[in-house]
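From the methods appendix. Each design record in this collection lists the tokenized structure first, followed by the designed amino acid sequence. Records were kept in a plain field format so they could be parsed without special tools. The example shown here is representative of the layout used throughout.

RECORD:
FOLD TOKENS (277 positions):
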């Protein structure tokens, strides 16, 4: 017996002069971007995983900038949704390393030479995420000078307040005595732990009901950093699993370079207060 067609009478089937699914998503451009430089089958995996990560990083940037804009407008509640979404996106980023870790050392060595000096630390989107979160380091912008548009965007983020700076400003507008040097500073420099600020956050945590908006903001930020550090750790372990302690393709120390990021924090007072509570 012939199976009945699943086509329904109301379905749009003729797209000669209309926008279809692939047109809306620009799938021809997206799916044609995977172009391995070797004939090795595992290079496609390597490219796809990194393309997927770049798409997720782009969405994180979109959500971070949305959250920062609403913090500036004293609309923290709206920012919370974006921050919560970022944490869910980061779960996808962490899971991507599980897929890449199926690449064995032998698999990778069949095409590693095709990468030349290309390396993940040259991702301008990853660098922008770090800048928006507060990891300010002007020297890390150097690999992007050859792309003026990308460099200009990164340079602007370097000199602008990070999301933590916006959070601190919101705390000040809520009536807390935030030190002036935290509000009026050179934002191209990383935030440095400030005990007075930690005491303010401690007050927020000791009286969460009376300061619930700031309390929730702090927890959303911690959640974002927690997931970000999980992503960094899985990145480091995936690299170690595949290439051991070889130098990175971009000239870095590889695993050693990735480990240095694990000891750095974006929001130091929010982590230190846990010991003091």
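DESIGN:
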């Amino acid at each position: 017996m012939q199976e009945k067609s699943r086509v329904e009478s109301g379905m749009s089937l003729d797209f000669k002069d209309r926008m279809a699914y692939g047109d809306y998503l620009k799938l021809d451009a997206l799916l044609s971007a995977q172009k391995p430089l070797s004939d090795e089958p595992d290079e496609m995996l390597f490219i796809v995983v990194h393309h997927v990560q770049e798409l997720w990083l782009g969405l994180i940037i979109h959500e971070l900038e949305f959250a920062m804009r609403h913090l500036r407008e004293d609309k923290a509640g709206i920012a919370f949704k974006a921050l919560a979404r970022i944490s869910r996106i980061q779960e996808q980023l962490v899971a991507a390393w599980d897929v890449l870790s199926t690449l064995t050392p032998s698999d990778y060595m069949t095409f590693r030479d095709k990468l030349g000096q290309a390396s993940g630390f040259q991702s301008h989107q990853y660098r922008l995420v770090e800048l928006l979160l507060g990891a300010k380091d002007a020297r890390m912008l150097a690999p992007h000078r050859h792309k003026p548009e990308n460099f200009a965007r990164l340079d602007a983020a370097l000199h602008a307040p990070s999301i933590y700076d916006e959070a601190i400003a919101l705390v000040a507008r809520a009536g807390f005595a935030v030190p002036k040097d935290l509000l009026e500073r050179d934002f191209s420099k990383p935030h440095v732990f400030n005990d007075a600020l930690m005491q303010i956050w401690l007050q927020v945590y000791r009286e969460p009901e009376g300061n619930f908006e700031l309390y929730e903001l702090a927890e959303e930020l911690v959640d974002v950093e927690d997931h970000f550090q999980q992503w960094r750790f899985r990145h480091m372990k995936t690299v170690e699993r595949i290439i051991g302690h070889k130098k990175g393709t971009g000239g870095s120390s590889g695993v050693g370079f990735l480990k240095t990021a694990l000891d750095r924090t974006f929001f130091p007072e929010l982590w230190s207060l846990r010991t003091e509570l």
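APPENDIX NOTE: The chain is about 60% helix and 0% strand.
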